[in-house]
């Protein structure tokens, strides 16, 4: 039977609507406008596209959007000084430094220079530690979006076997922590995993975050499993290019119970969660109840 297609685009629109409602109430009841600052270093075309659409959606939900574009050659000290100014700016509640950064910059140092309270990406070491110990933190947007779709699909995830393919700090590891927090039995697979097909075949939930086009074929998927495809890969088809995920959608959707498409699955949810995190950061900064 063909899988249910999880419509991340539609779900993200409902999340953004809720965010817009919170923003309107913050404005009406407290005269506060949540503000998000995005810092882009260099001219990577994909990053420019992401930053543009983040800015547009931030404004659409009624928040203040600030973009700082720095040349690829910027010195680390200048970048750190900008982040310091944003950390101390009361009108800015969320700061996002678009990754990857050019090689001459110390990415970890830059990420850790963002105030943890404004770290809406959830990459600061304090937030990583809080998430890992089950405490209130800023949760990375992509895994948070994946978790929301899984909860929407299943309600309670407890006891389910989940396999996360990929162990990056920004997707794989926090995804695994979130699934563990929801009481899944979690396996993290990576490039050294032995017999990956067998590992994946045991999973009720598969989250693929690898960055290899259509690497997971349908016959690895357990009948009825839920598949969340984080991958965004541009491939050439004849003279054109198209986006595909890390999962072979065609064959996997014949076996899965539910599956996210690429595009239109995880991607839109990531931006919606970024906006939701900014509202949360704003509420915390002002000692107000935060949205659920
Ligand atoms: P990374 O390159 O940081 O990590 C990839 C992971 O995949 C690594 O842990 C690597 O293992 C593992 N891997 C590589 N090859 C294999 C293999 N053959 N078998 C099993 N595991 C393998 O990528 P990211 O986590 O940053 O991103 C993953 C994908 O998600 C990319 O396509 C990216 O574009 C996309 N993405 C999408 C987002 C969205 O909003 N939808 C947001 C962020 C990312 P090892 O550690 O052993 O090298």
From TrEMBL:
InterPro entries per the UniProt record, alphabetical: Aminoacid_DH-like_N_sf (IPR046346), NAD(P)-bd_dom_sf (IPR036291), THF_DH/CycHdrlase (IPR000672), THF_DH/CycHdrlase_cat_dom (IPR020630), THF_DH/CycHdrlase_CS (IPR020867), THF_DH/CycHdrlase_NAD-bd_dom (IPR020631)
Superkingdom assignment: Bacteria
Domain annotation Tetrahydrofolate dehydrogenase/cyclohydrolase NAD(P)-binding: ranges: 140-284
Pathway: One-carbon metabolism; tetrahydrofolate interconversion
Reactions mediated catalytically: (6R)-5,10-methenyltetrahydrofolate + H2O = (6R)-10-formyltetrahydrofolate + H(+); (6R)-5,10-methylene-5,6,7,8-tetrahydrofolate + NADP(+) = (6R)-5,10-methenyltetrahydrofolate + NADPH
Residues binding NADP(+): 166-168, 232
PROSITE patterns, A to Z: THF_DHG_CYH_2 (PS00767)
Keywords: Amino-acid biosynthesis, Histidine biosynthesis, Hydrolase, Methionine biosynthesis, Multifunctional enzyme, NADP, One-carbon metabolism, Oxidoreductase, Purine biosynthesis
Domain Tetrahydrofolate dehydrogenase/cyclohydrolase catalytic, residue spans: 6-121
Pfam family, one: THF_DHG_CYH
Function: Catalyzes the oxidation of 5,10-methylenetetrahydrofolate to 5,10-methenyltetrahydrofolate and then the hydrolysis of 5,10-methenyltetrahydrofolate to 10-formyltetrahydrofolate.
Assembly notes: Homodimer.
UniProt family annotation: Belongs to the tetrahydrofolate dehydrogenase/cyclohydrolase family.
Protein name: Bifunctional protein FolD
Species of the source: Sulfitobacter indolifex HEL-45
Gene: folD
